[in-house]
Structure formats: C-alpha cells, structure tokens
Here is the input.
Amino acid sequence: MYEAAVFYAFGAVLVLSGLAVITARNPVHGVLFLVLAFFTAAAIWLLLRAEFLAIALVVVYVGAVMVLFLFVVMMLDINLEKVREGFWRNLPLALVVGGIMVAEMIAILAGKYFGIVSRPRDLPATYSNTKELGRVLYTDYAYAFEIAAVILLVAIIAAIALTLRRRKDSRYQDPSEQVKARRADRVRLVSMPAEKE
Here is the structure.
C-alpha cells in the first residue's frame, strides 16, 4: 500500500512537471522542470527495482544532456515571440500526438485491471537487473545493438565532415618540412665581445 502511494505521488509530480515543461514561458524554467521530470522518472525506476536504469537516467540525461541544454538555452538570445508564432498552427498535430499517447497509457493501465497483463514473477534475492539487461542486449539484440553502433559512428563522422571548414588564413604545420629542417638553417651563432664595466 505504501509503495503504491509513493508511486502515485511520484507519478503526479512527473505529470505536473511534464506539463510545466511545455507551458513554461521562460525556456530556462522549462529546462529545469524537465530536470525535475527526469529525477522523478528515476525515482519511479527505483520503485520498480530497476536501479541501473535509474542511475543511468540521472547520470546521462540530468548530468550531461540537460546541462548542455541549459547551457545552450542560456547562451542563445531566444526571441520568445518567434517561438510562440507557430503555436496555433501546430496545435492540431500536437493534440493528435498527445491523444495517441494518452490512449496508449490508458490501454496499459486498463490491461492490468482486466487481467490482460500478467502479474510479474517473483525474483530471487541474487537477481541483478543490470546483468539481465546486459544478457538480453548482447544475446537477443546483439545485431540491432551493433547496427545502432555503426549508425552512430557514421553520424559522428558525417557531422565532423559537414562542420569541417578550411580557412584560407589559417596556418598549418607540414611534418615533412619540419623533418627536413637542419640546425644550420634555423640557428645562427653570433660571436659577441664580453661586456666590460
């Protein structure tokens, strides 16, 4: 009973913070509400005994991605009027997507009450969800994992190639010319008389 109460409390905070993300007028406030949503989702993962996923969510999204988002939002001079211009034009599509997500959540919750979803099995005390996640990822989904890794590698190389710009006024080093250098070409010894007081 206590676990269910905590779950619903975290769920309410998650829903409210998610609504605050899309309704906040200040982009910085929206990013901070998104951080709260991620923390709350991590707490729900902990309630579901998925400790690895909870820690990964906090470290990866809150610790890296959201700090980057916050940095970009604070560094850019965002014109809020231009951001709000397309709100009414995109509202029908947003309502359709939101309706689909609500229907999916209702279907998942209704499945539990109508007996469609089976009760989770009891796990032994030595069970590790990290080990199970790794086993499934590297056995059942090994090819999909490798394909995703190759796609990410190609995306990184493409991003570097697209953003690489050669400037005419830049000075570059030529290693072959550096190897040919001799001391006589670079250093000249000058004999000077000693100074006398």
About this structure: The chain has three domains: 1-85, 87-120, 124-162. The chain is about 75% helix and 0% strand. The CA atoms of residues 156 and 162 lie 10 Å apart.
